[in-house]
Amino acid sequence: MKIGIVGTGNISTRHLEEFNKIDNVRVEAVCDTNKANLDRFLSLNKRNEIRGYSNLDEMLEKEKNFDGISNTTPDRFHKDTTLQILGNGYNVFCEKPLAENYKDAKAMVDAAIRSKNINMVNFTYRESSAYQKLVEIIQSGVIGLPRHVNACYYQSWLTSNKWGNWRDEDKWLWRLSTKHGSNGALGDTGVHIFDFAVNAVGNIKQIFADLKTYHDKGEKIRDYVLDANDGFNSLVRFENGAIGTITNSRYATGHANTLILEVFCTKGSIKVELDEERRKWSTLHICEKENVNEMSWETLECPKTPNNYQNFIKSIQNNKNMQPDFVQGAKIQKIIDSCIKSNDNNSWIDINN
User: Minimal CA–CA distance to 246: which of 302, 314, 191?
Assistant: First the structure.
């Protein structure tokens, strides 16, 4: 199978590596309007003999019969490039978030439906086998109905140098600047933790969000105005009656990259905690049956499951769209937009209004 990649920023290398691990799948061409990024990508991946192009038009003109195209462009370009990919009849695997706002995300959903092409969004943490088992258990009803949810996404790159000094690197600074297309922690990693909760528990009905930008870290570095949010708290009400909190921070010292989801139900509780090194990628904790009165938790080890890249290829082979698809991506984007509206209005927001 022949795969193309649009955009050659940092995440594109991961796409290259993961697709090339799959039998009979090969990334054959990439494109980027940023010549420096394109040249660096091609230089670092010479052994793959990948063809490079200066823009998407050129790649689509000279390359034929892609089985799928990965869209790893910056967020603000997702809509236009994806619509062009779909318009040329290709299946598309888009990085998160699906778009910068719900209106654009809905346009992408509509185009995908019209085209009848395979469409997926790369919500990375769906790949955890422990998380997938958690979803299965909740939806089976064996631990009862969800009543309370706690979901957290913790990073600490504003207080630690595990990933380098954020003040010196463009790959971090753009995430702090709305001018450079960032919706802050909410748009960057908030999409993951909302997807985490919604996919497991159900749709959110109402939300109250508080976004926070810490100006004591500085107002501006070079041409980056540091005005994007650094974290948020949100109160949520699910359509099934459950309530909960969903939070996110870049100041969570001691956590490089941690996601936690706890779901307390009427007959038991279940929780998963993922970490940067993926040491807990397959470890699930559950309190049920006789353990409920003992306040005792059992640890389950879950067999490895396919990742999003593998599921995208499988979707193409079977002509059956696997999750997470564009509909889910747009749903999460609507929640993100509602968080911004809630923060600006200091009020509860009905998601579907």
Answer: 191
Whether residue 193 is found in the same domain as residue 338: yes
**Angstrom distance (rounded) from CA 150 to CA 246:** 6
| Closest among 83, 199, 194, 79 to 134, alpha carbons compared | 199
Side-chain-side CA neighbours of residue 164 (13 Å): 8
Closest CA to 69 of 90, 53, 88, 55: 90
d(CA 341, CA 339): 5
Mark whether 64 and 86 lie in a shared domain. Answer: yes
Tokens of residue 164, six digits: 């380098």
DSSP three-state, residue 300: strand
Three-class DSSP category at 45 = coil
> Do residues 92 and 165 both lie within one domain?
no
Q: Which domain holds residue 59?
A: 2-124+310-322
Question: One digit per residue, pLDDT tens: the chain, 353 residues?
Answer: 999 999 999 899 999 999 999 999 999 999 999 999 999 999 998 888 899 999 999 999 999 899 999 999 999 999 999 999 999 999 999 999 999 999 999 999 999 999 999 999 999 999 999 999 999 999 999 999 999 999 999 999 999 999 999 999 998 999 999 999 899 999 999 999 999 999 999 999 999 999 999 999 999 999 999 999 999 999 999 999 999 999 999 999 999 999 999 999 999 999 999 998 888 999 999 999 999 999 999 999 999 999 999 999 999 999 999 999 999 999 999 999 999 999 999 999 999 87
